[in-house]
Here is the input.
Amino acid sequence: MRERLIENSIQLPFESSEDAQRAELRSESMDFERAFFDEGIRLAKERGLQPGSEDAWAILEEAAEVASSITFARHSRMPFSSTERAKLTVKDVQRIFRVTHDAYPADLIADARNGRDMKVDRQGLESSVSDYLRSEFRPPHSDRALLVALIDMEVTAYLREIHEKDILTGQRMVSIVERAPILTWLIGRGWAVLRLTLIIAAIIGIVWFEWITGELATFLIRGAVFLFLIGTAVSFVSYLMFRQRWKVLRQRLVELPSEMTRFYSELHSDGPLSVKRVRQLTQELSDMGAAWPGAVWALIDDMEARGVVYMT
Here is the structure.
């Protein structure tokens, strides 16, 4: 029964290279589906059902449906045609057939600057987690894989949003806080002083050629200085107002991404994860401005209700 379900889960065509086919069978997605099949078999045995019976198959098919809905959301990068699928390399297969994101923590910012994030059907993944929570299947490692996938999705999407260049302006959102407000104000005033100096020099030059009278030149210079002082006062008020907003923006555009990256690194560590600590960090990041999908909180609630202390 198990082997038949595994065979039905294979998505690469027979024309694919042997290495690519082996990579699919050893992939994170296939391990994830096997875990659901084994959980279905365990439940069928626990209920005393005969292998191959209609009731046993019903349980296994339900387990396969829940697992495939999760992995399918991550296979959004899978080519549609079998011809294109047959051309996939081992690295392509390893990247596509994952449940969680595959980037190293140190590469997240560089990937975001280049417009790369976790390729996933967001709505499909959240919907599949709902199916998982409604089901009776809780195979080992599934809680961690799903929680990490959901958080990976949000972290990489947020980093891309703030680091990717805007098509129209060519600016990154994060560039707003790359300089302290006082430095930005002083640079602006420096350019204003340079403009004032050029204007005064031009007026003096015009007087030297006797194109205007000295009285008119004095009036123009006083006017230029007056406008400079008005501009300085207005810009200083703007600086004071932006300084308060800058502190909030810095938290969202510098501190939050830094903490998100640290959280991502911890989630992708090899050791067990404490459910209590994951909730704590998730809440702290939420307080800083992270907008986690509702499925993240639902999954943590479900683990705590089942008495799960550690995710392996």
In short: The beta strands are 273-274, 310-311. The chain has two domains: 1-99, 101-312. Residues 36 and 63 are 6 Å apart (CA to CA).
